[in-house]
Amino acid sequence: MLGLNKVLRNALKAGGFDKPTPIQNQAIPLALEGHDILGLAQTGTGKTLAFGLPLIAHLMEEDTRPQTRTARALILAPTRELVNQIADSLRHFTMNTPIKVATVVGGQSINRQIGTLARGVDILVATPGRLIDLMDRGAVDLRQARHLVLDEADQMLDLGFIHALRRIAPALGTPRQTMLFSATMPKQMEELSRAYLTNPRKVQVSPPGKAADKITQSVHYLEKPEKPRKLREILDRDPDALTLVFARTKHGAEKLMKGLVDDGYNAASIHGNKSQGQRDRAIKAFREGTINVLVATDVAARGIDIPGVAYVINYELPDTPDNYVHRIGRTARAGREGEAIAFCSAEEVDLLVQIEKLMKVEIPVAGGTRPKAVKMEKPRRGGGGGGAGRGRGAPKAQGKPQGEKRPGNPGQKRRRPRRRAA
Would 421 be classed as within a structural domain? Predict the structure, then answer.
């Protein structure tokens, strides 16, 4: 299959991967030949295996072991959740091989990560910020790495990782194979590809900014105070479905989640104020169906790979249109169908216009009529009471990009009999 070795073919068969996705069909043969790859595809199309399988195949062919404090291949991703998702996917295909996969992310013990790297690893999956910390401590030497993957590179640019990348890339060995995968192609991405890729082969399975074909989209025009009622109305239509709800701020996401729990819904939240352990437990419970409503900020927009997500609800529209595409890409994964529902108040009309312009579609209206756009109020300093519930804009994130620094408080509570988890 696609030129992969017998070990990987058997692992694909055991995992139920019967047919490659379009991005895999195009990228894997080229990557196996050693070409640099520029891959463009919307989320949920199988990009992880498109770069992961040929990477594992190359490392198996090289048949060498990493020296202490070194890595043979480096994969960079913008969020902790995405790093963990990539590593989990790759471990399925390395379990019967000597290849070791390790992760380094913020929010976890750096001393434990130093201990892991001290033994040497084959594939290191990392967030740029934590990797820089480890490099500064002399805990990792990347000169042996001959493979570099930049996954969700456009989000790394959005989160300000370009300066970290400029430090990390020159530390790798040469010559090397570099693969860059992204869902969108802003101008800065073209500059990035020219800087780090050598004669790349471009593979593209859909226009940048286009959502997956099997996502049914709709928008409800309503005022901010009406959003909590409409959210509960939609959740009650299909109470057992896995539903991902996006809020704009971490404080807003937490308040929205607590209101849902008080009203009897099996809900949890993930955002920048949660520890890595809390986020991991919430995603695990959502994956297993212990909870069926997960409220998240954009920290989760690209890090959740759960095929069973039936609905994505944009309780608040994102500040940047690209993030809308990534949010709704959490449903209709692995060939399934899904539904994306957006709430749009007068303050968010301009954001919706930008989203539709990017996607080159007009999202069907499920309720209400488009109001005249109203400028969003600027948030007050200190962040105590602004944000999602009052329609204020979000300030720029500060510090490291693993979590947001934005205020908010959406949601209002409507009591009803408490449900018990199944």
Answer: no
